[in-house]
Amino acid sequence: MNNNFHDPRLILKKYGLYPKKGLGQNFLISPKVLRTILQASEITPQDTILEIGPGTGVLTRHLAAARCVVAIELDETLVQILRQELAQYPNIHIVQGNILEIEHPQLVAELCGIEKNYKIIGNLPYYITSHAIRRFLEIQPSPSLVIIMVQKEVAERITATPPKMSLLAVSVQYYAIPEMVTLVRRTAFIPPPEVDSAVLRLRVREHPLFPDIPSDIYFRIVSAGFAQKRKSLLNSLSSSLNLPKSRIATLLDKASIDHNVRAEQLTLEDWARICRQLMECESYPTVR
Known about the structure:
Number of strands: 9
Structural class: alpha/beta
Distance between the termini: 53 Å
Low-confidence stretches: none
Strand order of the largest sheet: 4-3-2-5-6-9-7
Number of domains: 2
Order of helices and strands: HEHEHEHEHEHEHHEEEHHHHH
Strand content: 15-25%
Shape: elongated
Mean pLDDT: 92
Largest sheet: 7 strands, mixed
CATH superfamily of the largest domain: Vaccinia Virus protein VP39
Oligomer: single chain
CATH topology of the largest domain: Rossmann fold
Helix content: 40-55%
Radius of gyration: 22 Å
């Protein structure tokens, strides 16, 4: 790997460039971490890959082992450099754009001739992490696997279990099975970010976790539960859903949920039982 590691510092020096703080650019300079990302990505010659934030192409060169790669880079200067440096790889398509604004499944279909079973790999600017992850998981067709570098704290929140759940954890785990592959020290990047990072792997669920519950209903209830974190679940749901406490208490009893627990103590299945009770009662139109 070390012999095939194209150090971003050399590329930046070659073209007289410096990382742009305004774009959240932190370039990976660790061959060890790169190797870990590649192993976690489980790349095969049949794969279609969407890379987010290829930067100087340190990872992109190795992704060329896949059948087709679409790399989306926001920085127009780096786009030109990537096209020049990676010109020898006809299966790599460099696209300039903002991942939050691009309908990436359609782009992958257009450039690679495949509409599903693609993988997303990338190093996201930390300020768009949560938004980007939700977009990756909710858009259709969704990827089969997501491998991304995120803040250590965000990875810990996403992979949390009761009693440390959060709205972010529920939102991600509803769509995928998360795993923190490895921690990454800030010294693995230039410039070093202010926090440590982690490689996060999301195995996207092939089928809805709760097919009997519309996703909008599920997240309406979960959001209501987390709306007032310091309150008990009974009080938070009553206040957020504008339903009498007596009604919520009855529903919680039927769902076998303690009135005094807090949202972070519930499992995804607990939320599903609450949703089913609400959908069965006469107040269902209210929560919809």
